[in-house]
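Field notebook, page 481. I keep forgetting to write these up properly, so this time I am using the form the group agreed on. The chain and the ligand, zinc ion, are recorded exactly as supplied. Prediction of the bound pose follows.
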Amino acid sequence: MRLFFLLVSKVNKPLFTAFLLVGLVSTSVFSSPYSGSQLPDLIPKADERSLTNPSFVLGHHWFRKISSSPGLIDFPPAYDYLRLKLAELTPYSQLTNKMVDIALLNSRQTNAFVIPGNHLFIYSDILVLIDQEDSLMGLLAHELAHLELSHYERGQQQRANEQRQALALMLAGIFAAANGSAEAGTSIAIGGAANQASNLLSYSRDHEREADRRGRELLRMAGKAPSGMTRLLLGLSAQSQANPDLEFLYTHPLPLSRAADQLTPEDNRITSQPSFAANSDASFRYFRATLLAYRAALVDNPEPYLKSQVTSPDSQHFALALLALLLDQIEKSQQHLDQITSENEFTSYLQLQVWLQSQQELRAKTWLTRQLQIAPNNLTMTTLLHLIQPGLPYIAATTEAYRYQIEQRLRGNLVAARNNNDEAMLYTIKAEQAYWNGNTELALRYLQDALNVDSSHYRSLELRSQYEKMKGLEIDQALFN
Ligand SMILES: [Zn+2]
């Protein structure tokens, strides 16, 4: 049996192999010395982010729609930080595709969730509760566990159509809430509808308990204290007493046994180890300060609110500077930036934005040029330089980029295409932007325009294949709408 498996594996035809392995496993049930849950998992899990996975197509469709809403937090250093934190956990997960795309949304609602196809959403408001990095790691581990254990898909198997409709309905509600969150009042009403839908779909309490347990395992394997997750989940339960409509609890109902899973002696042992991650702690403080500055912009008296939430001096000045920028108070933003004593990616990015918005482009250009000599592949700085310096080459695409990286590249390339009077490229970029804003129909029209103006044979072929791929996606999406 074993030899047969190896021989088949050498034939490089994944589908054929998978088909044979299905047969192999179903016969093993009767002949294997293993029983029940001990049975080894021989079937390689298909790529979660493949177009052949209907959950990915559905999830990706809504990920693009939700993450192009005005509620999206547009601050690349926050995504860079979160991407690195995820990368500390994903190697230990059983996900075939370790890429988890992220959207940070500005909302009054307290929520964080994953949708099929490895898409993670975090709402700014949940950072009020998450005031230490180990709690954030706990949240990431819990959400990663939901993906790894295919909880949506396993729910779907019970009543496929009903579940799929409920997922689409919930995501439509979240999309509406994300679009309305910039305006006072609307998000609460729409949030209610979204919550009703998510109630239909919420994970079962068993799935929650499973995600808690698996999340703790992931944390331990990554050398992190599982106590952070316990503290976060208990904090959310406590919060639910005062606010029974807490959004997180609609998507993640309280398992009956969570209270019993409180800090174990092992959790305490790991917590008591000395921390060598001082820099990482600072990055967390700035990440949190970024999300809470956005969150503060949604309340009536943002400054006192923000000061009460972000208390450490440097990150408080940073948060107030970011809030001022969001409220178009450029001078005030610079005043707060001037009081920050140490520089990092968050403060530098904010400073550059303030320079760019106060017509100090030369200053920004000098600074960026110097930084890019040290780190020539920094996408954020490359994009910013494109916005102020004509004549730069197009920014190359990578095979699997995060959505925020794709957005940055498109912004830089749009400016370059305009400067180069490259009409075909302009249409191509607009097509990609439309696609990433969830408007595939418009994207296809732009691609057709690009094909119409393009004369070079090589690029036409590339455009044609892009067109066919988008068209294929559109057909898949029609099934869900
Ligand atoms: Zn959960």
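OBSERVATIONS:
- The first strand starts at residue 101 and ends at 105.
- The two ends are 45 Å apart (CA to CA).
FOLLOW-UP: compare against the apo run.
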